[in-house]
Design a protein that fits this description.
The chain is of the alpha/beta class and 373 residues long. It is built from eight helices and 17 strands.
């Protein structure tokens, strides 16, 4: 008998033995750290009945991604469902779900075109109907995230300044690979340009320009020697089709850069859906250390203990009197705790109201007393 709560719902990720045509990132037909090889699954010495603490409800088969040929998308779907049927029969799986992964491509570069939607939709529907005739309880899932949202996103950059180097013209912007690593050609052998346009003005094409970010690395080139209008400081440049794999795949904090703001335009109205990081955001989780004495300066535990609060809710900018409501008696108790923890003596004559303004200002006072010891 299986005790309720002891059973985990599981999808087996199967890596097909066959290769996939037309994809830009292959997950099938080769060794991968993710998933179970088809040959291992089909030759497993056990079945699902031998594993009472898991309920294997189906399979995930992710063959590849960014496939632009609609016929290939359909063929890969058919082969994946055939493999799911074989593995389910071999392992005794009561199939309630098959996740076909992603794969539907989006055209980014010159010479590419989006796959014909009518062709792959009708082909996928036909393949899934055939599969469900044999496995009627199965839900067929796909992960077409890039195809659904890629066209909706534009990476907007402001030109800081322009320059010429050995005949090449550059527009250096306020964002680069730190917020759009995909655009510089991550994981590709040949750098190709995503569609890039001038958003803030209507000017004729003026020759070749490279649009770069502000990072101190020559690889921080988003668009390389593309036909563009003349670019000027203050211009807004847009890199199109960036709705997928933007900041979350990028080195957002390189060279002290920060995560960008994200704007959703809905029915013509712009909404801020993620605020741009501030310098304080970069420093908030850092722990200051007094290197002269080898002591970590973090007064939040003492403040939390004095007030009966959770230390994780306290920030450097938490105001002791206004936010935390520390009264004069609690302040005396807090100073005594700090003296005991950091082994210093407070000078009542030198203490000022500014020292007790925030957690950060009181931390600075403690640090100054340690340096004066």
């Amino acid at each position: 008998m299986r005790a309720e709560g002891d059973v985990r719902l599981v999808l087996l990720r199967i890596n097909p033995a066959y290769g996939v045509s037309g994809d830009r990132l292959t997950m099938a037909g080769r060794s991968r750290q993710i998933g179970i090889d088809e040959t291992i699954a089909l030759n497993a010495p056990t079945t699902v009945a031998d594993h009472p603490h898991v309920d294997i409800i189906g399979l995930q088969i992710y063959t590849g991604t960014r496939i632009l040929d609609a016929d290939v998308i359909v063929q890969n779907t058919e082969r994946a469902l055939d493999l799911a049927d074989q593995v389910a029969e071999r392992l005794g799986i009561d199939v309630r779900m098959v996740d076909l992964g992603g794969g539907i491509g989006l055209a980014y570069f010159e010479g590419e075109a989006d796959p014909d939607e009518a062709t792959f939709v009708s082909g996928i529907n036909l393949a899934t109907r055939k599969f469900r005739a044999k496995h009627p309880a199965a839900t067929i899932a796909m992960e077409p995230g890039r195809y659904l949202v890629g066209k909706a996103g534009t990476c907007v950059l402001r030109v800081r300044y322009v320059k010429e180097s050995r005949g090449d013209r550059y527009a250096i912007t306020d964002g680069g690979s730190n917020l759009n690593m995909v655009a510089i050609g991550l994981g590709t052998y040949v750098k190709r340009n995503f569609p890039t346009v001038l958003l803030s003005a209507d000017r004729p094409l003026d020759g070749k320009w490279s649009v770069t970010g502000p990072l101190l690395t020559p690889t921080d080139v988003l668009t390389k020697q593309a036909e563009m209008p003349a670019l000027r400081p203050g211009d807004l440049v847009g890199i199109l089709r960036m709705g997928a794999y933007g900041p979350t795949t990028s080195i957002a904090y390189m060279n002290g850069q920060r995560y960008p703001a994200e704007i959703l335009v809905l029915n013509g109205t712009a909404h801020l859906v993620r605020a741009r990081d501030t310098p304080e955001d970069l420093l908030r989780k850092q722990i200051l250390v007094d290197f002269d004495h080898g002591q970590e300066i973090d007064i939040r535990p003492a403040v939390a203990e004095t007030l009966g609060r959770d230390a994780s809710t306290l920030g450097e900018d938490s105001r002791l009197t206004d936010d935390l409501h520390v009264d004069s008696l609690s302040m005396v108790e807090l100073v005594a705790r700090l003296e005991d923890q950091f082994k210093f003596a407070a000078d009542p004559e030198a203490l000022t109201p500014n020292d007790f303004a925030t957690v950060g200002s009181l931390t600075a006072y403690v640090r100054s007393r340690l340096h004066d010891r």
